[in-house]
Design goal:
The complex is a heterotrimer of chains A (about 475), B (about 100) and C (about 475). Helix content of chain B is about 35%, strand content about 5%. Chain B is mainly α. Chain C folds into three domains: about 290 residues, no CATH class; about 110 residues, no CATH class; about 60 residues, Arc Repressor Mutant, subunit A (Orthogonal Bundle). Classes of the chains: A alpha/beta (about 475), B mainly alpha (about 100), C alpha+beta (about 475).
């Protein structure tokens, strides 16, 4: 097994046992990235800088400094996270060769924890997509089976973790963009509670929905990364100071006595006309039985507004996006059209040349739903339904400690299969989207594979700021489900 | 609800997007599909339901009124497509 | 016959005040006026990808104080919203403002007009927002400077309650005095710290339905406001009288030609697509914070004016001069505290002497040497006959120059009045002895010479002799 195949936990053990160095694992990762055929990265790491940094960490460890679990760990960053002096594209032509003059808070915190940034991972343009086929830098292959998509929008991050091109990665999740690709690539993906992680330096898509989170190989690794990046930030007024549980202890705590809700809607509704894939349903039910056998109590619950989540989401997310993307106008940074004789052409040509089809579609939809005469019927209504969806969860969490569902209604689909029908693509997010609307945390953990060898994801949801409960359930399933 | 080509063009103007003929057709079609799908929400009675902007309730924290400049003009303007005399250069803004 | 016999003018104002904070409303970049382009900015003001707004607490306090001064309802929970439009001086493609729930709701301002009557102008709302940058033309191009982008503003919106340009000017002057008083805004109209838009319409005398209004934007002096409204009123009346219609539009005033003209539209259809700003949670002004702001509210000009008249028996005019500018009012009150028995004399000396030497800005400056208590001390010396007014006029410049106390200067330079009868008698005797001719003429009936003797005695005493005593003694001695 190459060093690049280690988990963070395994690497840490070997590092402290003197069996490996950060330089060695970083070199293994850099070699793997060089050989990558999945197009997981938009900007590959600067080899010398990464190795230099690894040696610095090794020197500190050799000097006896206690640097914590992320010291010397190569971590990939979704390319919608700003990195000082390193090109940041959001997978869009509109950003041109934009080099941020600052680091995103999460990126800075990872660096402070001793992690080594290894490249900017591919994504759907501005995190808009569920297959990573909407990237101006080309689609990403699913390393499990390269005919298939890795999911999206954090497709590059998930592919990089699954393909051992990093030990862990940061993604961002607006409607499932961490959990869905994690499910489709057989990795662990965590969307923290809205406000748990600072959004400063994350190129915004849907500001009231976006959260940064880890994609990792194991549940414990996700806990390590979350511990490093969480916490309130002076540059993000929506980040919050809330006590975090002991995640490491939670991973080992087991589920005895825990009440787990099983929402019937998540086992009935599928993507559009299709019902949930039978193998997905069976795998999740099997996991539920295992958790029950480990002492959890299963409770049938209902989240009655689930079927309205996608409509609600696409109104809110696109409205916010239409406004968030107005700053890309060719004036202060990013792509400027050569054909700009006057101000209006500067705007229209720069934006039309710079944005891809899906992004344009969402800007148009968002502009439409906010425009005069439609606000109440669309945007405001969606905000009201959002309240109902949140109340569904609040009611459920009166009864149960966590909710377990499939992450996606079906396993990975083939490249090109859904690109012609945006609505079908949107429906792919049906199980992940409510979590963002309600602001609660969710995690996807591997839950076996289909007969075709495609990974299946198990999603666990918990009340706001109860990531510890997610780790409890996820940790148990990871242990006993093997 | 169907959306007309004229509406697509109006929204494109508001969005500062220039669309080709085929893009206009495709968007009229796509957006109509999506808007038809979201009609689903009309099944729900939301009268009296508070609209939600922030998923997790919190209050504004306030910043002290103390100057802090972390970046120089060069840092901030290095990505500018066109500049002159320390300012961003654009085609002439219609005089007002 | 006046135009107002046949027509009603209807005006409402929107006033933008730049808040006097050190930093921007949503970033910690500085707000200095006149700096090198794009040096008063950081990544937030430029709207770089990934940045988020962080609200300036001082600005919130200022907005609440302005609201309290205008008797507004304070919304203790208010919401920021995005106003979306494209313009090169608007970096994010949206302005963060307040829409449905602004920080202040309805209030009013009572304005005293020139004829002494009072006009109540309704305040619709006050909301907080960020300023935009500035573009200047350079040949075929425009150059964008974002120093002003993100400077905190409050917009004070009035009801269309004003029916004469003089009312508008009086309202704006009073409003400006208030925000300057509060320290909320420096009130500088030329630098754009205090900017007025006026919504103007006309209707036939007594008609109930309002006419179509035009918005006159960014007028930067009180005179221009009056001229612009007068012009606009006549323009609209002419349109209506010639059977045309007033078109709702934004117009600018050209002060050189004295006319208003239609502005080219920025956005073909003004569809700002407001929605609540997801990056900023609701802004809550706690009960404690509100109480704290109330506690720190200064007495406002109108209240001071009234109090000076009743408490100190000053004329309306004098009370106005003393209360219009906060530094002058505070100086005056500080001086009265030192000389509480003669506030009228203090008022006279501030108005007639101090303000000849110093402006309100001088007085407010740290470098201004005379402290209010020292000035009060000077007036006290006059009113207790320690020095004469004439001597006091010589003392004041020395105080302004050195910062020394009045008593100290009087003592050091021996300027105290001579009230010793013996000493005065000596001066009088000397003068009578030295001018026998004039004495004779006086005694022969030329009484107009009395002034000559007074002058001679005062001169001999180098101005220090108590004039009353001199007069008395001279009269008795000259009788012979």
């Amino acid at each position: 097994m190459g060093f690049n195949e280690l988990s963070i936990e395994e690497f840490g053990q070997k590092l402290r046992a003197g069996e490996v160095t950060s330089e060695a694992v970083t070199k293994a990762i850099l070699d793997a990235i060089d050989a990558d055929q999945t197009n997981a990265f938009i900007t590959k790491p600067d080899r010398d800088a990464a190795l230099e940094r690894a040696r610095e960490i090794d020197a500190k460890l050799a000097a006896g400094e206690d640097l914590g679990p992320l010291a010397g760990v190569p971590i990939a960053l979704k390319d919608n996270l700003c990195t000082k002096g390193v090109r940041t594209t959001a997978a869009s032509k509109i950003l041109g060769d934009f080099e941020p003059p600052y680091d995103a808070t999460a990126v800075r915190k990872l660096a402070e924890a001793g992690a080594i940034a290894v490249g900017k991972a591919n994504l759907d343009e501005f995190a808009m997509g569920s297959s990573n086929e909407n990237s101006a830098f080309g689609p990403v292959d699913n390393p499990v089976n390269t005919d298939y998509v890795p999911g999206g929008s954090s497709g590059g991050s998930a592919a990089a973790v699954a393909g051992h091109l990093c030990l862990a990665a940061l993604g961002s999740d607006t409607g499932g963009s961490i959990r869905q690709p994690a499910a489709l690539t057989g990795t662990v993906g965590l969307k923290p509670t809205y406000g748990r992680v600072s959004r400063y330096g994350l190129i915004a898509f849907g500001s009231s929905l976006d959260q940064i989170g880890p994609i990792t190989k194991t549940v414990r690794d996700a806990a390590y990364v979350l511990e490093a990046i969480q916490g309130p930030c002076e540059f993000d007024m929506t980040s919050m100071e809330v006590e975090a549980g002991d995640y490491q202890a939670a991973v080992d705590a087991g589920v005895s006595g825990l009440k787990i809700g099983v929402p019937k809607e998540y086992f009935e509704l599928g993507a559009g006309e299709d019902a949930i894939h039978p193998e997905v349903k069976a795998a999740v039910q099997n996991a539920l039985s295992t958790l029950e056998a480990q002492g959890a109590e299963l409770v049938d619950i209902s989240l009655p507004h689930t079927e309205y989540a996608i409509a609600t989401y696409y109104l809110i997310a696109t409205a916010e996006a239409s406004s968030n993307l107005s700053r890309f106008d060719g004036v202060r940074y990013g792509h400027r059209s050569d054909d700009a004789p006057d101000l209006e052409s500067l705007y229209e040509n720069s934006r039309s040349e710079g944005f891809g089809d899906e992004v344009k579609r969402r800007i148009m939809l968002g502009t439409y739903v906010l425009s005069a005469g439609f606000y109440d019927a669309y945007y405001k209504k969606a905000q009201q339904v959002r309240t109902l969806i949140k109340q569904d969860f609040e009611n459920a969490f009166q009864e149960v400690d966590a909710i377990v569902t499939p992450t996606t209604p079906s396993p990975a689909f083939k490249k090109g299969e859904k690109t012609d029908d945006p609505l079908q693509m949107y429906l792919e997010d049906i199980y992940t989207i409510s979590c963002n609307l309600a602001g609660i945390p969710g995690i996807s953990v591997p839950c076996g594979t289909t007969g075709d060898g495609l990974p299946i994801g198990l999603q666990i949801l918990a009340p706001a700021f109860r990531e510890d409960t997610l780790f409890q359930v996820a940790g148990e399933w990871e242990r006993s489900g093997k | 609800m169907a959306i007309s080509k004229e509406e697509v063009l109006h929204i494109a103007k508001l969005s500062r997007l220039k669309l080709s003929e085929s893009e206009v057709d495709a968007l009229a079609h796509n957006l109509s599909d999506i808007l038809q799908y979201v009609e689903k929400l009309n099944e729900l009675d939301v009268s009296g339901v508070e609209p939600m902007t922030h998923a997790v309730p919190t209050q504004m924290r306030l910043r002290e009124d103390v100057v802090e400049q972390r970046l120089t003009r060069d840092d901030l303007m290095k990505n500018a497509p066109a500049s002159q005399d320390g300012m961003f250069k654009v085609p002439k803004v219609v005089s007002d | 016959m006046s135009i107002y016999d046949e027509w009603d003018l209807v005006v409402g104002c929107e006033v933008h005040c730049q808040l006097a904070t050190n930093t921007k409303i949503f970033s910690s970049a500085p707000t200095a006026f006149g700096a090198e382009p794009n040096t008063q900015v950081n990544e937030v003001d430029l709207g770089l990808p990934g940045v988020l707004p962080v609200l300036n607490g001082k600005g919130v306090g200022f907005a609440v104080a302005a609201g309290l001064a205008l008797d507004c309802e304070i919304n203790q929970t208010s919401i920021f919203a995005r106003k979306n439009y494209f313009y090169p001086d608007l970096p994010k493609g949206y302005q963060i403002s307040q829409h449905e729930t602004p920080i202040c709701g309805e209030g009013h301002l009572d304005v005293t007009l020139e004829d002494g009557s009072t006009k109540r102008v309704g305040i619709t709302r006050i909301h907080m927002e960020e300023d935009a940058g500035k573009s200047t033309h350079a040949g075929a191009n425009s150059l964008v400077d974002l120093n002003r982008a993100g400077v905190p503003l409050i917009e004070i919106v009035s009801e269309p309650d004003m029916s004469h340009p003089d009312e508008v000017v009086a309202y704006l002057k009073e409003l400006r005095a208030i925000v300057v008083y509060l320290g909320v805004c420096d009130g500088n109209m030329e630098e754009g710290s205090f900017r007025c838009d006026a919504n103007v319409s006309v209707k036939r005398k007594g008609a109930t339905e309002l006419g179509t209004r035009c918005e006159l934007k960014n007028i930067n002096s009180f005179k221009f406001i009056k001229d612009a409204i007068n012009y606009e009123m006549r323009r609209q009346i002419e349109l209506i009288e010639s059977g045309q219609k007033v078109i709702q539009q934004t117009r600018l005033f050209n002060p050189d030609r004295g006319v208003t003209f239609a502005m080219r539209d920025k956005e073909e259809s003004h569809d700002y697509r407001y929605f609540p700003e997801p990056d900023l949670p609701p802004m809550v002004v706690s009960d404690a914070r509100l109480a704290e702001i109330k506690e720190s509210m200064p007495e406002l000009p109108a209240a001071k004016r009234a109090r000076y008249q009743s408490e100190f028996d000053l004329s309306a005019y004098d009370a106005g001069v003393l209360s219009d500018h906060r530094p002058i009012a505070e100086f005056f009150e500080g001086a009265v505290a030192e000389c509480p028995d003669d506030p009228k004399q203090v008022a006279n000396w501030v108005i007639n002497e101090l303000l000849k030497e110093a402006s309100a800005d001088d007085i407010a400056s740290d470098e201004f040497k005379v402290k209010p208590a020292q000035f009060g001390e000077l007036v006290k010396l006059i009113s207790t006959d320690v020095i004469s007014g004439k001597i006091a006029k010589k003392v004041l410049p020395k105080m302004l120059e050195t910062g020394d106390g009045a008593e100290e200067i009087v003592e050091r330079e021996g300027l105290k009045q001579v009230t010793d009868t013996g000493a005065i008698e000596q001066f009088v005797d000397e003068v009578i002895a030295a001018n026998p001719g004039q004495v004779q003429e006086y005694r022969d009936g030329k009484e107009s010479l009395f002034g000559f003797f007074m002058g001679q005695v005062m001169k001999a005493s180098r101005g220090k002799a108590n004039p009353g005593m001199v007069q008395q003694m001279l009269r008795s001695k000259l009788k012979g």
